[in-house]
Amino acid sequence: MSSAKNVHQRLAMAMGDVDYIQKEKKQGMNYTIVSHDAVTAKVRPVLLKHGIVYYPVRCEHTHNGNRAECSLTVRFVNIDEPSDFFDVPTFGYGIDTQDKGPGKAMSYAVKYALLKALGLETGDDPDTESVDYSKADPHIPPFNAQAAADRIKNSIELQYDGASLKTLYKHEERCIGDIERADKKLHAEVLAAFAARKQVITQKEVA
Fold first, then answer.
1. What are the CA-CA distances from residue 131 to residues 29, 86, 134 (Å)?
2. Of 114, 117, 181, 207, which one's alpha carbon is 20 to 30 angstroms from that of 77?
3. Are 173 and 152 in contact (CB under 8 A)?
4. pLDDT tens digits, 127-173
5. How big is the chain by its Cα radius of gyration, in Å?
């Protein structure tokens, strides 16, 4: 068990114990990935060793055709002092023709919360990847601007401080851009919701 006193000290020690997760090639795939199970297997024992547990504290999801969209918050807690914790907002998508979409989306979201919380390298570099999307691709459902805007506005109401609100905006920035291109009025509503929530949070912090 770690001798560190707070959750951030414990996390720093956990980060020192694991620094890379190997990509793997699943059966039937022609590319390599970093899977949820691989990340969990590598990270969970290290977190437990240093007295940290994690679990979802908020989860919202919507369906857009055969794509499930999940907005999730993962909480990392000091097991010796449960009031000592930090939250990581995250999100994920899962495409499935049957009923596995929500589970895929949640697994994706948790995987990236773990990777980002511990600052882990995977060999992926999104900044160097370029993918051309075909508008006629039948596997990509049409973007539902109303559903996306509603999901983001619901998430905004759950944010409790300025930092989490800012993080949410960063996570949803690309989706907000998609909403703007699809519907200017909905885009204005989303920005207004962010501004209104920021005002409420600021008033609470001043009080």
1. 17, 34, 10
2. 207
3. no
4. 444 444 444 444 455 678 898 899 899 889 888 888 888 888 888 88
5. 19
Q: Is 196 helix (H, G, I), strand (E, B) or coil?
A: helix
Whole-prediction pTM: 0.55
Does the structure show a pLDDT above 60 at 52?
Answer: yes
Task: Say if residues 59 and 71 touch (Cβ distance below 8 Å).
Answer: yes
Structural tokens at position 87: 């939250």
Residues 33 and 64: beta-carbon distance below 8 Å: no
* Residues 61/70, Cβ–Cβ less than 8 Å: yes
Gap between the Cα atoms of 149 and 153, Å rounded: 6
Distance CA 182, CA 186 (A): 8
